[in-house]
Write a structure and sequence with these properties.
By secondary structure, the chain is an all-alpha fold. Helices cover 54% and strands 3% of the residues. The protein is built from four helices and two strands. A two-stranded antiparallel sheet has the order 1-2. Helix 2 runs antiparallel to helix 3 (77-101). The chain starts with 7 loop residues before the first helix and ends with a helix.
Amino acid sequence: MEAGPRDTEHDAPDTQHEAGSLSPDGPDELAVTPEVEVELRPARRLRIWQLAPIVTLAAMGSLMFAFPLAFEFGDGGAVVAMLGLLISCCAAGWGMMAARRVGHTWPGLPARGSGERPDWRVIVLYVAVCAALVALAVWRVARLRS
């Protein structure tokens, strides 16, 4: 038995189907209008005034980190490199917080407020990558000091 509206014309004998009425398998194809789905709220995006300071800080910090390590600028090179690393990490954190505010999430993690639990393997992967990057940075600065 099917659930839905009944086609009384179909049940009655000797009735003819009119244009626009229900046929045994649904409405006529000519009478169907295409549905248009419209989002009422605009998409939340990071604006240029949010991105510009983050990109500027990240570029400045990465240059401060890279140049002393690449060209070994005397005794102060390690300090400048660590300061550059700190500024780069601050810019990354600022960028993550701005992205979270507009609703973006890390790949593999559920959206904020969805009620889903994050997969522990994805979290372990992110922690391992961050630990490896920190270990490489500390190892490079320690080599620079010796």
